[in-house]
Amino acid sequence: MTSSSTGAARRFFIEGTGAAGNVIEIGGSDAHKIAHVLRLSVGDRVEIIDSTASEFDAAIETIGRSVRVTLLGKRDVRQTTPASLWVDVAQAVPKGSRMDFVVEKGTELGARAFVPFFCERAIGRGVGEEKIARWRRLARTASQQSGRRDVPQISHPLSYDALLSTFDNYDVVLFAWELAPPQALREALLSALPERGEVLAVIGPEGGFTHAEASAAFERGAVAVSLGRRILRTDTAAMALLAVIGALAS
Q1: Which CATH class is domain 8-74?
Q2: How far apart are the first and last CA of the chain?
Q3: Alpha carbon of 34 to those of 1, 68, 104, 137, 222: distances in Å?
Q4: What whole-number distance in Å separates Cα of residue 119 and Cα of residue 117?
Q5: Phi/psi at 189 (nearest 5 deg)?
Q6: CATH number of 85-249
Q7: Between 20 and 30 A from 247 (CA), which of 72, 73, 139, 239?
Q8: Can you tell me the distance from the alpha carbon of 180 to that of 18, in angstroms, rounded to the nearest whole number?
Q9: d(Cα 114, Cα 153) in Å, to the nearest integer?
Q10: What's the pLDDT at 131?
Q11: Residue 7 has what pLDDT?
Q12: Domain positions in the chain
């Protein structure tokens, strides 16, 4: 039976710009999902989003090791209010698979990009191309699941000095620090966040930032924010900050 309803579960991203009539080949995990998870058939509909965030209805033509679909035309997407704040997360690379959690859940909470970095007390080391590729796959899958029309960018890890040099690219840099003045997070963000603009949320490692690192960030214009009286794990801290920013900006 052919389905005309796609939904987030049937949303797939492609590189480049699409146009009605184009035949697109989908491979890898997306092809596996179509054939073996969703169990779709020839003639079923999926939703395709290209690199310009244009959405297309598409019909499955063939299913095998890869899936071929034909773009039927752009979707009439309901107008929504554009985002007023774009939040990038600079995350000190944590140990184990904690960065997987940050990328997956941070994508669901609306982060525009993730900037992994190393500092003095960062435990996670040895980030190679394979791990970065995994994070990008997780961001892509989380974008599909949550109904996003874009996939967050994930850069190669930066040194702390290189991270500091990016601060001038943002309207506000929020520096989550356990020694920040004890002000309620909501009040601190209402004071710090602009109505519109680009925000960088800087999250430290398991052992926290050194005083020298914090001082260097404040000299660059970062705003210290407290996440409360409890010491949060590094991956929890990112989610707490994104959730409150999202609530205030909605």
Answers
A1: mainly beta
A2: 39
A3: 15, 11, 21, 16, 45
A4: 7
A5: -70, -35
A6: 3.40.1280.10
A7: 139
A8: 48
A9: 6
A10: 92
A11: 61
A12: 8-74, 85-249
Question: Of 137, 135, 143, 133, which is closest to residue 112 (Cα–Cα)?
Answer: 143
Mean pLDDT of each 10-residue bin along the chain, 250 residues long: 53 82 86 87 86 82 89 68 81 91 95 95 81 93 85 94 97 92 86 90 93 96 90 90 87
pLDDT of residue 111: 95
d(CA 186, CA 189): 5
Question: Edge-to-edge, what's the strand order for the sheet holding 55-63?
Answer: 11-13, 45-49, 55-63, 67-74, 23-26
SS3 content of the chain, % helix, strand, coil (to 5): 35, 25, 45
SS3 179: coil
| pTM, two decimal places | 0.74
Which amino acid makes up residue 222?
A: A
Token digits of residue 39 = 């169990």
**In contact, 239 and 105? CB cutoff 8 Å:** yes
Q: Which pLDDT belongs to residue 1?
A: 36
Q: How far apart are CA 88 and CA 114, in angstroms?
A: 6
Least Cα distance to 11 among 48, 64, 61, 42 occurs for 48
- Write the DSSP string, 156-172: PPB-HHHHHTTGGGSSE
Q: Is 113 helix (H, G, I), strand (E, B) or coil?
A: strand
The length of the chain, given as a count of residues: 250
Q: Which two tokens stand for residue 89?
A: 């997360």
β 67-74/85-92 pair status: unpaired
Q: CB of 191 within 8 A of CB of 218?
A: no
pLDDT of residue 5: 43
Closest by CA to 129, choosing from 150, 103, 90, 155, is 155
